[in-house]
Amino acid sequence: MKRTKIKDLIATAPEEQTVVVMGWVRTFRNNQFISINDGSTIQNIQAVVELDQLEEGLLKRVTTGACISVTGKLIASPAKGQQVEIKVEQLEILGDSDPEKFPLQPKKHSLEFLREIAHLRPRTNTFGAVMRVRHAMAFAVHQFFNEKGFVYVHTPIITGSDAEGAGAMFRVTTLDAENPPRDEEGKVDHSQDFFEKETNLTVSGQLEGETYALALGDIYTFGPTFRAENSNTTRHLAEFWMIEPEMAFYDNNDNMDLAQEMLQYLMKYALEHCKEDLAFLDKRASDEEMTKPQAQRSELGLLDRIKFIIENDFQRLSYTEAIDILKNSNPNKKKKFKYIIEEWGTDLQSEHERFLVEKHFKKPVILYNYPKEIKAFYMRQNEDGKTVGAMDVLFPGIGEIIGGSQREERYDKLLTRIKEMGLPEDELKWYIELRKFGSAPHSGFGLGFERLILFVTGMTNIRDVIPFPRFPGHAEY
Q1: Virtual CA dihedral for 250, 254, 257, 262, nearest 10 degrees?
Q2: CB 443 within 8 A of CB 252
Q3: pLDDT at residue 70 above 90?
Q4: How far is Cα 396 from Cα 304, in angstroms, rounded to an integer?
Q5: Which residues lie closer than 8 Å to 234 by C-beta, 6 or more apart?
Q6: What own/partner pairs with CB < 8 Å and gap ≥ 24 does 428-435 have?
Q7: Maximum alpha-carbon separation in the chain
Q8: Where does residue 310 rank: exposed (0-12), middle (13-18), buried (19+ CB within 10 A)?
Q9: What does pLDDT average to over the chain?
Q10: Reading across the β-sheet that carries 399-406, which strands appear in turn?
């Protein structure tokens, strides 16, 4: 017989039919009750062994963490909290687990400890739930764009350009690290490298995405990106995934419309398709909130925060309007902000963004028209000469979740801005050239996938929403 997933078994009417289930032992009580999970659902199924039915040597191998196969009758369960259970007829050990050494005993473990055993943490309820939600959100992203007629484009992971102009990139090379070839000036001679030039891991697929938007209309990328920033925070990773749509003939208002539509679509999908996992994560987040001082607790539970996004139109206001609100706010006047807002032109921090969303407007916020000096070179310059057509979407509990802009489609304006910022024209020649041959207004944005998963799952550290986190000093597995 083929095995049946636990997710399907618990939704099956018990008629004493013979079933096969395979999974990992969570607990084994009284030498009789085995709790099994196979990863298909957060729920376990109970397998009941009759006393003296199986030999003692076999039962001793039924330990927490062991992998087993059970064949038996699916019957109605008399126990609370479960509809069905399996009356064991046959039991086979597929993989033993030494109970003295298995680190995931049935007790509460800290997230810090679980990060140290990232190869085993998916077997916990929390990480099983997070990863199933992550899968659902990835599928929903592709479904959303497919329904809207977007083309999925795979942009390169190895690139010769720095989309952000930030310089914090991981280098890709095959040169001898101990003794690289050097030119006449004593500099490393990259002409002898694999690509015959300096190359890096990508920080964004945006620039390459624009080339396809200016041919296919509406495209999106969804892939890994890399930042070599020495950021040891709960919101930064060195390797993460980005969703980046680029749309020809979109102005920044169209861009904002799409961002709101996509986020609300994803929130609805999560509520409809991840009910059990979100219910578990909602309780987990609530329990975690109770350990915080009253003043630091969120006003909304996890499920309420998700509904908050679905049920509210996003408030749109300019950066200039936001600065006025923040300057005159009580936290700013009473110097309760860590970063005091004193003048126009300052870069907003998460605390400012969250104040606008959670305290002032009490709805998601989209800020637009930022000062050009704090934004990237490719953003379209506004007629005032001071601002660019940027837009950021702000969420409760997180702050910025999306950053985007209308792109500069005018050749002269783009070239001037690149020169002002001292960026290498030769490396960006192909990008600039797009503005010479059939340029068109176009826009796009980037959504950090892990930031999205943080929001949907209620987790508080970005290292806990990606299977194998990469951050300064850590590249295990």
Answers
A1: 0
A2: yes
A3: yes
A4: 11
A5: 460, 461, 462, 463
A6: 428/161, 428/207, 430/211, 431/161, 431/207, 431/210, 431/211, 431/378, 434/210, 434/211, 434/214, 435/408, 435/409, 435/410, 435/411
A7: 85
A8: middle
A9: 95
A10: 151-152, 218-226, 239-248, 442-448, 399-406, 387-395, 365-371, 315-318
Is residue 238 classed as helix, strand or coil in its secondary structure? Answer: coil
3-state secondary structure of 141: helix
pLDDT at 450 exceeding the cut of 80:
yes
| % of residues, the chain, pLDDT over 70 | 99
Asked whether the beta carbons of 103 and 37 are under 8 A apart, the reply is no
Would you state the pLDDT for residue 321? 98
Write down the pTM of the prediction: 0.94
User: pLDDT tens digits for 163-188?
Assistant: 666 568 999 999 999 999 999 999 99
The CA distance from 347 to 367, in Å, is 12
Reduce the DSSP state of residue 93 to 3 states and report it. strand
Q: Which residue has the tokens 């102009």?
A: 165
Query: Please, are residues 375 and 240 in contact by the beta-carbon 8 Å criterion?
Result: no
pLDDT per residue as tens digits for the range 221-280: 999 999 998 888 888 899 999 999 999 999 999 999 999 999 999 999 999 999 999 999
Indicate the helix (H) or strand (E) that contains 401.
strand 399-406
Neighbours of 211 (CB within 10 A): 17
Q: Give the alpha-carbon dihedral of 225, 231, 235, 240, to 10 degrees.
A: 10
Which letter does DSSP use for residue 373 in this model? G
pLDDT at 165: 60
Compute the average pLDDT of residues 343-368: 95
Q: Which two tokens stand for residue 46?
A: 């109970």
Helices (H) and strands (E) in the chain, counts: 14, 16
- The answer, yes or no, to whether residue 295 has pLDDT greater than 90, is no
Q: Over the range 166-176, which residues count as b (16 or more CB within 10 Å of their CB) and which as e? A: eeebeebeeee
For residue 235, what pLDDT is reported? 83
